[in-house]
Amino acid sequence: MAKRSSEFYPGKKQKRKPAFILSIVLLTLLALLLLLFYGLQKFIVITNDKLYLDIPLLSDGSSHIEVNDEGSSVRVFDPVSIELVIGEADYTNIKASAGESITTAVKADYISAANLTADNVRNTLAAQQHANALVLEVKPASGILVYDSKTDFAQAYGTGGSLDLAALVQEIKDGERDIYLVAELCCLNDSAVPGRYPGVSLKKADGSNYTDDSGGWIDPYSTEYRKYIADLSKELAGMGFDEICLNGIRHPVSDGAGFLYPGSSSPSSTPVSACSGFAISVTRSLRNLDAAVSVRLNSDAAFTGGEDAAQGQNAELFFKVFDRVYYYVDASAAVLALDSAAKYVTLGEVRLRFVPMCYGRSPETDCWVFLTG
Asked: What is the crossing angle of helices 223-239 and 165-173, to 10°?
């Protein structure tokens, strides 16, 4: 094959040096800077203490330049109307978190605070035949505890009593029988604390403490009172109580005058949202308590319909966040009430989580509380 020949010498290719490329880049940047300098001169604002650019395209139109009393140019922002709306809390989507670990059937005698003495407890235990438990009311609606609590709140406002409850609990636990102990605390109906500490009281529309025939009432949103109930619960569990039952998580029925909640930031608070918020807050603070945490349902309307808008109780929520729900019912209707309660139970067994409280005789259910007096 013959070799190709060329009439022209292609010449030697020259490689561009890095220095040449760098020079091109620097010249381009310099040209751009000069363009920006001369193009933006009309947007330069010089004041007594600084120099800055005021470019309309970069402004949202909510400000402008003015000269103040000292002769300096300053940016003034136009007033903006902001409205913060805080709606009513929605607790319908709260996930059930309590009751699954309940395995003990409670068959208890109830001893009120007025009758709670060491001798009465001993006599009640000695007379028991079919019961395995005691429910002791240690904080009644009067607000005065039956024992000398060492919690900060009780010490500060003098709500303690005189019974040596810790020694009594120890005596019961050291006995031959295995007695299940429940301490009952009345929560939002409290006649002692509002007079001693008005800051936690539920208020009338005129700002005065709210009271009715049942005594004084607590603002359900009060963080200090919520902590007080939680601290009492922890103290009682530390004594050896197996369960804490919170009574009176309810709201007084309005007489039309309205209420004020000093601890709430929402103008749309309702009895239901107030009581639900209290229940959730306290149970969350007690999630690691070495005792069950239960509630006493005081409203027939809430039990049958799920919610009582006037008294603020929500049976569906109570069964979600409390291990047990105690409810007064006639002994003859206890079995039917148990069946009705089943619609609220998603964790655990309804026969162990629903506790009828009855006068006269004990009902034919696995759990019950026998009331006297």
From this structure: 40
Q: How far is CA 212 from the centre of its chain?
A: 26
**How many angstroms separate the CA atoms of 173 and 102, rounded?**
20
Residues with Cβ within 8 Å of 152's Cβ and at least 6 positions away in sequence, in order, are 231
* Cα–Cα distance measured from residue 146 to residue 143, given in angstroms and rounded to the nearest whole number: 10
Contact call for residues 363 and 331 (beta carbons, < 8 A)? yes
CA distances from 17 to 14, 22, 257 (A): 9, 9, 90
Other residues' Cβ atoms within 10 Å of the Cβ of residue 247: 21
Residue matched to tokens 């006297």: 372
Instruction: Report how far residue 85's alpha carbon sits from residue 315's, in angstroms, rounded to the nearest whole number.
Output: 29
Determine the Cα–Cα distance for residues 326 and 323; give it in Å rounded to an integer: 10
What letter would DSSP give residue 321? H
Pairing, β 368-371 against β 354-359: parallel
**Which residues have C-beta within 8 Å of that of residue 79, sequence separation ≥ 6?**
none
Query: Hey, what are 33's tokens?
Result: 């800077």
Give the whole-angstrom CA distance, residue 303 versus residue 314: 8
Cβ contact 303:342 at 8 Å:
no
CB 249 within 8 Å of CB 278: yes
Condensed to tens digits (0 to 9), the pLDDT of residues 210-259 reads 999 999 999 999 999 999 999 999 999 999 999 999 999 999 998 777 89
Supply 37's token pair: 């300098």
What tokens does 113 get? 């605070």
Q: Angle 23-28-29 (CA atoms, 0-180°, nearest 5)? A: 100
What's the pLDDT tens digit per position in 181-224? 999 999 999 999 999 999 999 999 999 999 999 999 999 999 99
Pair 353, 273: CB distance under 8 Å:
no
Q: What are phi and psi of 67, to 5 degrees?
A: -100, 125
Residue type, 215: G
Q: Cβ(342)–Cβ(350) under 8 Å?
A: yes
In angstroms, the CA 214 to CA 209 distance is 14
